[in-house]
Design brief:
By secondary structure, this protein is an alpha/beta fold. α6 packs antiparallel against α8. It is globular and about 100 Å long.
């Protein structure tokens, strides 16, 4: 089969070069020739029928070193890169070569035939006979041969002897990639069933920053989406894509994008080689590891420094590792870091690693890692230290781990093929994680790897597997899988369930194989606090070994002491703005938008010598029976009409001043009006879309404020508040522990209501409430009243939580009242989290009243109904999930920003009444689904300053 050949040739115009490899035993090379037009697909299929598939893995050795150990029964089968060589032949001969490199990491491949070895000689004559029966044609696209590693001539490709050489000679994939790179190729599109060539090719190029490898297909991933990703990646890198053919028959049509008021100012983010995010542009080497960003070899003394950045947003699996309610970076992650440092410094054995202090990632923000590897000492060992510091902090680096790296000299252990071992007694592990949760170990899905276990004397033998096999990509041994081996300690005899322990010392850590997604464990205890771990793969071959793991007791107080202080939670603070009195500021004209949508007369003629800014005051006079949300929506609709009309009437871009009354709380004792606050959210978004066109001014009824308005507007500040003639401007200030106060304690016997609880955000929040706040009764609501898939929250039941899912539209007051009445008396409602919301993004000029109200209702009406229906229930917490768009503005989200500004004002109003309330202005949630599901990489980078943690 030639995956995607038709779509690829029709979509990507004029590929420059084609190459293949033997990742599928020569099949890929004939795929390349078919795509190039060298011979027909049927002929390639005939050749494929003569050969079987084989798999390869990277090996870390140079070809020149291997050649000296070969014999008549073993050959070099592939040279996949400067440090990746495969040998093939008889089992004994191959084992002898591997034995010569016992100090290096090797991997035995499972294959059906010993391709590219002397064992293929008996079939060469028959294969050549078949090859001579085929018709050949010169390729339409140049082919880089991985038999020679250079461009192939027409005569070579049309000669049967060339294809016979495929079977016998080594595959020079690495040379072929370097030839392509030398010819100026920087974009490599892989046609095959998975991304194995892309991973291997990235190791062969000299310039990893400029080259991109993109697969057309990925195993266990949607084919259409993966192929679309290939086309998009090719397009952004300058490859011509025939989009007309790509979308033929789909009904898609071209749409003109709206223009933007750039006004000759550069607004694009720098995100290319040489930017601050590019390690090579900073004079460092990319580390190429999920936990590390860059490596730096220090001149003159053989020292190496490795740096990285960890956060719960970028490494979400860390949030699944909590002890006593505190999320910790597992000790296994430090082991992985040490192994990576050892590999880079030719000391792959972690002789010892001591964890001195737990590393607690902040709930918001990130920590910077710094790993220093010292020069070789007299014994050929290297000292290692791992430090961390909160991002943006100026304090001292905290040392979390120290260790010693050493060369690996011991031979690889013998495989264990008897599984489970003879005489082993099966152990039921179904309740293990419930038992661990009762002891204070809260493991989320990423760390729940224990699949089965057996006891043999004092030892425990177990099977473990990562829930997501793709998570292992890039790791030597994924920390979640290594940490899960420690969960089997709970099955050992003599363990005290009342004591919490953590690993603090690892000795004799050796990794024999990388990228494991499942392992078999042999756990040997030496007392209650000392044990040996041996890990094997499914064939019994060794994966890793820890000769001595030591654990020690840890207390909740110690873990809480390691928790970092809040670092990136901000609030809006109003500061007095000095004003220079001047008579040159024009007297503004006032334009009023009434409830029926008509425009009132100007209050001034604006005849001054300097053009006066127009001032619009928006009011909404509703019916006597209207509630606050209805008034807020009417206000927003009137404002939308006024703003759109002004953009049409005044194309010269002169600033429009939007005046509100009591929309913001300047002083701590002030109470904002939610119906006016919606204007601030809407205009903030409009100001992002139309830079320099809008000014927000909130005023009181004091005549002194009216008198100072012209001079205040003349300062050029985009947002102002006038109070008794004093001018204030907003700024973001870092929140302290006392602002908003400690998190309330939630009664485990009470019920917590989460609106929008069936969505991706709601499900994350449900887990957070259970694992971090001890909630045991959850009521999750959504309009449909169902989870995206059955059992989506079954893991919470395993933690002892009872989850009820109900259908309820919170904008329907009667339906919400009935839902609240259904909460059982034995588990009364004690907290509310309003996380519901919808999006209908569009520029201000494209919004309609219907689109505006449809987005506002789930925010404004639902929050107001929750406020009124629960105000007398004595809630411990009333949490509103707002958005940074309401405070900072967001292009295309004027309706969404207006609704969230209402939530912020409602929270302030509740607190003024002595009721609990917290409004959190979140940014983009990286859940991969829900409202943010359609955003691509460039969209996410545009929101980079607003992305919070998942918890």
């Amino acid at each position: 089969m030639v995956p995607g050949r038709r779509d690829w040739r029709e979509a990507v115009a004029d590929p420059a070069l084609v190459a293949g490899t033997a990742a599928l035993a020569g099949r890929a090379r004939r795929v390349a020739s078919v795509c190039a037009g060298a011979f027909m697909l049927a002929a390639a299929g005939l050749l494929d029928g003569r050969r079987a598939a084989t798999h390869w893995r990277l090996a870390r050795e140079l070809e020149e070193e291997v050649l000296g150990h070969l014999g008549p029964e073993v050959s070099v089968a592939a040279v996949n890169g400067p440090r990746a060589v495969v040998v093939s032949g008889t089992e004994a001969a191959v084992a002898a070569v591997a034995g010569a490199f016992s100090g290096r990491r090797t991997k035995r491949l499972r294959v059906s035939h010993a391709f590219h070895s002397p064992l293929m000689d008996p079939m060469l004559a028959e294969f050549e006979k078949t090859a001579r029966e085929l018709r050949y044609a010169p390729p339409a696209i140049p082919v880089v041969s991985d038999v020679t590693g250079a461009r192939a001539s027409e005569d070579e490709l049309c000669a049967p002897e060339y294809w016979v050489r495929h079977v016998r000679e080594a595959v020079r994939f690495g040379d072929g990639v370097r030839t392509l790179e030398a010819d100026g190729v920087r974009t490599f599109l892989e046609l095959g069933p998975d991304a194995v060539l892309s991973a291997m090719g990235a190791q062969a190029v000299a310039d990893t920053e400029e080259s991109a490898f993109v697969p057309a297909l990925r195993r266990d991933r949607d084919e259409e989406r993966t192929f679309a990703t290939l086309l998009g990646a090719a397009h952004v890198r300058g490859v011509t894509v025939d989009w007309q053919r790509v979308f033929a028959g789909t009904g898609a049509r071209r749409t003109d994008l709206p223009t933007y008021a750039f006004q000759r100012r550069r607004l694009w983010l720098d995100d290319g080689p040489g930017a601050v995010t590019d390690a090579g542009g900073l004079g460092q080497a990319p580390a190429g590891h999920p936990l590390l960003g860059a490596a730096l070899e220090l001149a003159g003394d053989d020292r190496v420094a490795l740096t990285g950045r960890l956060s719960l947003a970028t490494h979400s699996w860390l949030a699944d590792h909590a002890v006593a309610g505190v999320v910790l970076v597992p000790g296994s992650a430090f082991v992985e870091l040490a192994v990576q440092a050892g590999d880079r410094t030719h000391c792959p054995r972690v002789e010892e690693l001591t964890l001195e202090r737990p590393l607690v990632p902040p709930e918001r923000g990130a920590v910077h890692l710094q790993m220093a590897v010292a020069a070789l000492d007299a014994d050929g060992r290297r000292r290692l230290t791992v430090h961390a510091r909160p991002e943006g902090a100026d304090g001292e680096w905290i040392r979390h781990a120290t260790g010693v790296l050493a060369p690996h000299t011991a031979p690889e252990p013998a495989p264990v093929t008897d599984w489970p071992p003879a005489g082993a007694v099966p152990v039921d592990v179904t309740g293990t994680y419930d038992h661990l949760a009762g002891q204070g170990y809260h493991y989320g899905p990423s760390f729940r790897c224990l699949r089965g276990a057996w006891r043999l004397g004092e030892e425990v033998w177990a099977e473990l597997a990562l829930p997501d096999a793709e998570a292992a990509d890039g790791f030597g041994l994924h920390p979640a899988l290594l940490d899960a081996t420690l969960h089997a300690i709970d099955l050992l005899d003599g363990q005290d369930p009342t004591v919490m322990t953590l690993p603090f010392s690892w000795e004799g850590v050796t990794l024999y194989a990388t990228g494991a997604t499942a392992v078999r464990l042999r756990l040997t205890p030496h007392g209650t606090d000392h044990m040996t771990l041996r890990l094997y793969d499914g064939t019994g071959a060794p994966v890793a070994e820890v000769t001595a793991l030591r654990v020690r007791q840890v207390t909740t107080e110690q873990l809480n002491a390691a928790t970092p202080a809040p670092g990136d939670l901000f609030r809006v603070r109003w500061t007095e703005l000095p004003l220079t009195r001047t008579d040159s500021a024009p007297e503004p004209r006032t334009l009023t938008v009434t409830a029926d949508g008509t425009f009132g007369p100007d209050s001034a003629d604006g005849s001054g010598s300097t053009p006066a800014p127009r001032v619009v005051t928006v009011t909404a006079e509703g019916d006597p029976g209207d509630d606050l949300p209805a008034l807020a929506r009417r206000t927003a609709v009137r404002a939308l009409a006024a703003l759109r009309q002004d953009l049409v009437d005044v194309p010269d871009g002169a600033p429009l001043v939007v005046v509100t009354r009591s929309a913001v709380a300047v002083h701590a004792d002030a109470v904002p009006d939610p119906a006016q606050a919606v204007l601030w959210g809407m205009v903030r978004a409009a100001a992002v879309e139309h830079p320099g066109r809008f000014v927000l001014v909130d005023t009181d009824d004091d005549p002194a404020s009216a008198a100072v308005l012209p001079a205040a507007v003349a300062t050029g500040a985009p947002e102002l508040a006038l109070r008794a003639g004093t001018v204030y401007a907003p700024e973001l200030a870092r929140a302290t522990d006392a602002e908003p106060g400690p998190a309330p304690a939630l009664d485990p016997d009470g019920t917590v209501l989460v609106t929008g609880g069936t969505g991706s955000l709601g499900r994350l929040l449900a887990r957070h409430l259970v694992t971090r706040h001890g909630v045991r009764h959850l009521l999750l609501t959504g309009r449909g009243g169902r989870l995206p898939e059955p059992g989506a929250l079954d893991d919470l039941a395993a933690l002892g939580a009872e989850v009820t899912v109900a259908a309820c539209d919170a904008t329907d007051r009667d339906a919400l009242a009935a839902l609240l009445a259904s909460v059982p008396a034995e588990h009364p409602l004690t907290a509310v989290v309003h996380a519901a919301g919808v999006l209908d993004d569009g520029l201000l000029t494209d919004l309609t009243p219907e689109r505006l109200e449809a987005v506002m209702r789930p925010k404004t009406d639902a929050a107001w109904h929750l406020h009124e229906l629960t105000r007398d229930l004595g809630l411990a917490a009333f949490v509103l999930f707002s958005s940074a768009a309401g405070t900072l503005g967001a292009a295309g989200q004027a309706n969404y920003a207006a609704g969230n500004a209402f939530l912020d004002a409602l929270a302030a109003r509740r607190r003024a009444e002595g009721l609990p309330a917290l409004s959190l202005g979140w940014g983009l949630w990286d859940t991969g689904e829900g409202m943010a599901a359609g955003l691509g990489g460039s969209d996410v980078r545009g929101f980079a300053g607003e992305v919070p943690n998942k918890d």
